[in-house]
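Q: what sequence does this backbone want?
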């Protein structure tokens, strides 16, 4: 378990380093193309950061509202409440708010910018169809996302994507409209224009692939951390087996919040691994049973 946790942390930070390199490459290409001006880069960083800060503080409410989740208290469902409470104590976390989604689809998610502002939501389907140890494994996985500050990390990733998208868009517009910001030294530099154009087109696609890769690594990390919390990897593995066999999608599934869920909330099984927000269930099960 400790080996899985260490490996996934290293891989996540390696992917984040690639993000920084992509942003630095775009900034360099822009400065070369525009004659050394860095104002456009600073504007992209500020704008993307401000938009992401708004999402950071309000994103959990949006996700819970969009999913149709309803907050419960201990008297509403003592069984679920006690599972969350016991695992929170074990993990050394404050008790999060507990939400239930009326849906036969089996799924769950955690949200919140830090452990003091966390919420855990699960569908009635996952509560009714999983055994005690299996549901405990799923909740431990979600609490691990909270403890590992995965929501905060993914917000940093979104800021990086915002910066890359803005820089790419502005560079493409500059190329299309004649590149008025170019200096006389760079005017007519065909090689620089081609390099900048390629970066502007491919960088957003590359950034999106990195985001998905980071999301998948954090799922593996939460699996390992959750198994460490319960000391019973088999419970989580059995839960994944059951959940991966369901056919119907979550009724209120949304692409913007798909990465938050325990498993892909859509029914499409043909999505390529590199374009998925979650690792294949078989890979997750195999990793858990090798712990």
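A:
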């Amino acid at each position: 378990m400790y080996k899985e946790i260490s490996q996934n942390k290293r891989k996540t930070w390696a992917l984040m380093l690639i993000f920084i390199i992509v942003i630095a490459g775009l900034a360099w290409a822009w400065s070369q193309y525009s004659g050394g001006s860095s104002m456009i880069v600073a504007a992209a960083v500020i704008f993307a950061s401000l938009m992401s800060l708004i999402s950071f503080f309000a994103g959990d409410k949006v996700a819970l509202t969009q999913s149709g989740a309803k907050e419960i208290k201990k008297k509403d469902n003592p069984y679920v409440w006690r599972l969350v409470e016991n695992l929170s104590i074990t993990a050394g976390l404050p008790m999060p708010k507990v939400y239930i989604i009326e849906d036969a689809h089996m799924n769950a998610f955690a949200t919140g910018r830090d452990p003091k502002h966390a919420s855990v939501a699960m569908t009635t389907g996952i509560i009714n169809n999983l055994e005690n140890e299996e549901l405990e494994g799923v909740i431990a996985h979600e609490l691990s996302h909270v403890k590992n500050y995965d929501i905060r990390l993914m917000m940093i990733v979104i800021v990086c994507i915002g910066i890359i998208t803005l820089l790419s868009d502005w560079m493409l517009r500059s190329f299309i409209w004649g590149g008025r910001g170019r200096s006389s030294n760079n005017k007519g530099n065909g090689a620089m224009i081609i390099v900048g154009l390629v970066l502007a087109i491919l960088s957003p696609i590359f950034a999106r692939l990195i985001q998905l890769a980071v999301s998948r690594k954090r799922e593996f990390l939460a699996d390992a951390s959750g198994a460490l919390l319960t000391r019973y990897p088999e419970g989580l593995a059995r839960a994944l087996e059951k959940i991966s066999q369901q056919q119907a999608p979550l009724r209120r599934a949304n692409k913007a919040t798909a990465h938050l869920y325990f498993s892909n909330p859509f029914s499409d099984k043909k999505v390529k691994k590199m374009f998925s927000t979650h690792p294949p269930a078989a890979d997750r099960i195999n990793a858990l049973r090798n712990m």
